[in-house]
Fold this protein.
Amino acid sequence: MELAYPWIGIVGVIVVIVLAIIPFRRKISYKEGKKVANIELVEQTELYKKLKKRYTILNICSVSCLIVAMAAALILASRPAKVSQINTELRNRDIFMCLDISTSVDQLNLELCGKLKDVVKGLDGERFGITIFNGQASLIVPLTTDYDYVLQMLDKLEDAIEQSIKYTDVEGEIDYENFDMTLYNFKYDGTFSDGRGSSLIGDGLASCLYNFPDLKENNERTRIIIFSTDNELYGEPYVTLPQAAELCKKNGVKVYGIAPEKVEEEAEYKSSMELTGGGYYKATSAGVVDDLIADIQKTNKSVMKKVDIVVNDKPQILFGVMAAFLSLYFVFSKLAKK
């Protein structure tokens, strides 16, 4: 048990001592009754002695109770509390999933979402986020440790991709009449650009990179992007894929790229991923997503030690003592006057 404000108790004790030793002169006046002389005879009687003894005992009890109540009040004012230190370890790693939501990557993205749900369930203190892109990027989930929310968004993204696969023909035409428009909007809202084209790969990766908070201020965190695209570019991006990979390398972000069986400019895609210190995976065989995830889980993650000081106020016992002895003081004072 500790006192948060011990100086209050010290000051209070000093004030009480000073008040106790200062002589207060009191002029006794007799407003009622008459003065009595020659009371020696009365003082020798058994009744007088008995009443005086009773009064003295009750007076001592009442003063003692008052002193205890005052002491409890002073300690209460000093804020008694239990101070404890909690040491926790936080895994210092951020993971962003960045998906090209073109229909040509739907099947791969569907598998990736399913596998990553198991990864999210095993996280402990690490932050996870989701970005999707087409003509421009859209942040679905900022980096968070709210894993239940992340899993809800992965489920919804899975449903949207399943609808896309089901209601998109081989030529890329979407059956809007049957497509659940809530899921359609979830997948596509915020990803269309104003005439600049679609599948702007470099822009998507660069946008995801700058969704990491305190990117420059905190370079101790391990940062990873899981990147999914077929690298089929339509339009003029602000940033090319190699340029975006260079930015990731500069900021210490590793990118693990995965592509479907059909991929454009594969050599460029692969070299860009490897430039960041990450890796490149092609979905030509079963288990490639598992391999990607296994390699990510092997990455180093720094551990931060967090120390929290927890202060729990403990006024209950002292408040009870103060209330009880204050009540006794009034009882003894009243009895003493009878």
About this structure: The mean pLDDT is 83. The chain has eleven helices and ten strands.
